[in-house]
Amino acid sequence: SQKIEQNSEALNIQEGKTATLTCNYTNYSPAYLQWYRQDPGRGPVFLLLIRENEKEKRKERLKVTFDTTLKQSLFHITASQPADSATYLCAERGGGYNKLIFGAGTRLAVHP
Amino acid sequence: DTAVSQTPKYLVTQMGNDKSIKCEQNLGHDTMYWYKQDSKKFLKIMFSYNNKELIINETVPNRFSPKSPDKAHLNLHINSLELGDSAVYFCASSQERGQLYNEQFFGPGTRLTVL
Question: What is the arithmetic mean of pLDDT over B79-98?
């Protein structure tokens, strides 16, 4: 069955740098991948979706890539700010309907 | 304007009790979900309803029973609560009809603690 793997170690970076988070999938190539942000004590919030035939998607300071050869999606935040500190979740549609399979998330801490 | 709301936010109860969590969405979506997020932060789908019809039922003990009185509401009833049921439960919704790629909108979560 499909597994979504994200680096469980926290990512600590300095304000202004680019944060890069990794999402790997183990089995079939998903039709799309979604990225969500989750703050402590709150529900996930949708950020970006990238389809398998798209190499890259951008939204303001966010950029997502999808490499079906490497079975990987990268999530970039440029010019990171302390307000970007949160857990970022990668998810794919686990076959049929809109059932999402989530990775464990990567916690990002941006230090001033 | 709250898009997806859940009540209660916190629920502390004894083992063996029965409890319910309520969810409402005002987005006009036709699909609603329950997810469980355990202490390791893994978010796992439990159930999904489309227009009041159950369409996803993951391997969840039958002590958990979802109920959708209408497409704006999806409640979760849990019988005979066990310690392992302690987690944060999230309700979510999305619009499925005519769409292929759908973002999901999550509620604020209900933190259930079973003592």
Answer: 92
Q: CB distance B107–A101 less than 8 Å?
A: no
Quick one: closest CA in B to A43, which residue? B108
User: What mean pLDDT is predicted for residues B23-52?
Assistant: 91
Inter-chain touch B40–A102, beta carbons under 8 Å: no
Torsion of CA A104, A101, A34, B76, to 10 degrees: -100
Residues lower than pLDDT 50 in chain A: none
- Within 8 A of A108 by CB-CB distance, chain B residues are none
How far away is chain B from the Cα of A43, in angstroms, using its nearest Cα?
Answer: 5
In terms of Cα–Cα distance, which of B69, B4, B71, B2 is closest to B35?
B4
β-pairing verdict for B43-50 and B53-57: antiparallel
